[in-house]
Design a protein that fits this description.
mainly alpha; single chain
Length: 130
């Protein structure tokens, strides 16, 4: 069953890009294991990429859980990259900030929804008039 609550177009785009790129990277990493003289990729990088692909796919079935997993793994990517690759760090920080947008704007919407009460409608129904 698909839970689409919390799904937005920009998060869906990020999940689709991560799904495509990380799945392709995982396939490439697997192919390196079968080549005789291929370079090696650290196991942590392979597992992080696999986790990103799984989280991105999960987003399409359960948006809220997939979003949180992408957020956590992107933060972990920023920490793992550190200062070794400035462009990759900048990319992941931008993605991390975009992934944080629903958390920053969501509380404002929840407060506005809590302040809006449909009391006149409920009062009319309680009296019997429609």
């Amino acid at each position: 069953m698909m839970k689409t609550e919390g799904r937005t177009w920009y998060l869906t785009t990020i999940a689709a890009v991560y799904l495509a790129l990380c799945t392709a990277a995982c396939a490439y990493y697997v192919s390196l294991h079968f080549r005789a003289n291929a370079g090696t990729v650290p196991l942590f990088t392979q597992l992080l990429c696999l986790g990103m692909a799984i989280s991105a796919a999960l987003y399409f079935f359960n948006a809220r859980l997939g979003h949180k997993a992408l957020l956590a793994l992107t933060a972990l990517s920023v920490l793992a990259i550190g200062t070794s690759n400035a462009k990759a760090t900048a990319f992941h920080i931008v993605v991390l900030l975009v992934l944080l947008v629903p958390f920053l704007t969501g509380r404002k919407r929840q407060r506005e929804a809590a302040n809006h009460t449909p009391e006149p409608i409920l009062a009319n129904r309680a009296e019997g008039s429609v």
